[in-house]
Fold these 2 entries.
Entry 1:
Amino acid sequence: MHKSETSGEHDWAALAADIKRWASELGFDAAMIGDAELGPQAQRNLDAWLAAGQHGEMDYMAAHGTKRARPAELVPGTRRIISVRMNYRPPAAKDSEAVLNDGSAAFISRYALGRDYHKVLRNRLQSLAERIARQVGPFGYRAFVDSAPVMEVEAATRAGLGWRGKHTLLLSREHGSLFFLGELFTDLPLPIDPPLPQEHCGRCSRCIEVCPTRAIVAPYQVDARRCISYLTIELKGAIPLQLRPLIGNRVYGCDDCQLFCPWNRFAVDSREADFTVRNGLDDISLVELFAWDQATFERRMAGSAIYRIGYERWLRNIAVGLGNAPSSPAILAALQARLDDPSELVREHTSWAWAIHQGRSAAQIPAQAKQTSQPGAPA
């Protein structure tokens, strides 16, 4: 971030109001301004989570020391954080529960049905910064969209954009939790919006109760090693055997803790065209996806958040879904076709799924499937 070159006096309160209006014009559903100081508790919570190893293979969560909880260390000169949210639920997408209840269908987290949100939000934040610069002159800023060591939920909570739910995601009384977050770090002395006076989860523990793998091990604490989103997106190797049956047909991410949250009765469909469903991913069979070759995957997933996990992990995830699906000739044929897949990772998960459908006991599953479960996995 370059040092601010603004000169003279500005009506910062008026500018803050303009920023919120410009953010709305750019497609954001809300924008609030918080202080760059996140408080010592944020660092303590992060340290405890890392010490427990609950970040799994996400080493980047520990790679930046105190910078994650101290924005002014990450970007020197930061005085304020403009936090924005953008709804992502695609209009007209097939009902999530209907897909989850159809074992032969592939469930893909609703946020990933359209275009990659990183590019969409980052471009809009850049446009917002340019609009501010036209008003005040050159100033110091840096935009973030889930792409650097930023505690985005904490920043958004501090700015009054919502409160942290027991599933650790940000919640809003008006919009639930089905939205993306982005941040604009700035050196401008903008007035700060106050945090909400209280959270609104109360005694509700629905998100904890419905988690398929019991990954929410306590209110406000997620063990990533048991989280389906981590297992299907972040984990690079084999999915622990004990967790595979619990994944069901969720082949990319998991929305259960949000789908069954009472506050998402108020979730609003996105007004962003880039988040509309692409490639029919809201209503597609596991068998059809498993038949894609690598060229098809790369062509259809270009511009999608799914693209970054790569073809091999995509097939790994679908193989698990097929193993959990009701047996049918089509599913058996799909699995049989990949028992000799060039990828060892795909072969192992396909063999596991094939053995499940053949009714074999765990002792009869091929040796390469007998991996050691990761720490934190349920026995």
Note: Residues 1-7, 367-379 have pLDDT under 50 and may be disordered.
Entry 2:
Amino acid sequence: MKNIKIGDRIISDESKAFIIAEISANHNHDIEVAKKMIREAKRAGADAVKLQTYTADTITLDCDNEYFQIKQGTIWDGTTLYKLYKEAYTPWEWHKELMDVAKHEDIICFSSPFDKTAVDFLESLDVPAYKVASFEITDIPLIEYIAEKGKPVIISTGIATIQEIQDAVEACNRAHNEQVILLKCTSAYPAKLEEMNLKTIPNIADTFNVISGLSDHTLGITVPVGAVAIGAKVIEKHFILDRNMGGPDSAFSLNIEEFSEMVRSIRDIEKALGKVNYKLSDKALKNREFSRSLFICENVKAGEKITEKNVRSVRPGYGISPKYLPQILGKSFKESYEKGTPLDFQYIND
């Protein structure tokens, strides 16, 4: 069984789901909003908050030719990559202050680096883990550089083929890092339910011998709760204080109440999942009194043959099991018995 430690949390096949609140661009360039998001994520039940560490210049080029125009049918169509990331990035000078807030709130904080300079910067802050975003999964040199730091690496698989996922896992392994978590992800914003294919989550774990989870961009909480029900051990969901604030990721982010409800629902489904268990509880054993059993259903005399007319399977469950009826038909009663007597083997002649 794999065990991966992030901060003070152990993530394994037997652990509760590790729930990440993705802050992304939802702070709208207000550090006080970002701080409040961390505090509210903690109160909502998140195990961790995640930042994104890049600048427009480290992630793309300041260029507006056709290659850099966003026109893929997303909520960001009509702008350029550079303009989007200029609006969305989290200033690097905020990071330490935000991580200090997280430490004070006792919530884990880490980030997604988008180039080697971001990795170096995050290393200086001693982050407990790294996240590789979906669109960076093909950047094998970057993944190797991250994995070399010896910390858990969470990788979203949104735009990757199965071979590219394998390449990313092998990049970590080459760096002698097997602390890999793969997140099923549908890179659509928002993503449609019919595109989620949650059955892939347990298959990812089996195929790549990793812990698997979900990075979710659907609306609502149905998908992450369903993902936990089939084995997801990490859930990442975009978080916002209020969608009316707007911002690049606001449309597919959960507000405080929704995130809290998601956490409650996940914890409830985890309780219900329990473990493989065929042992009856005390309550179930007591309720067996209402199960079916064989009763004498009319007054009978000693020596009278047992038939389906004088013995029946009925509720409650104080007689012998109905499965014995075929074996006892045709045998005879030892004594006389009244209607309503639970049948016992000692009442039957061999």
Note: The chain has twelve helices and 13 strands.
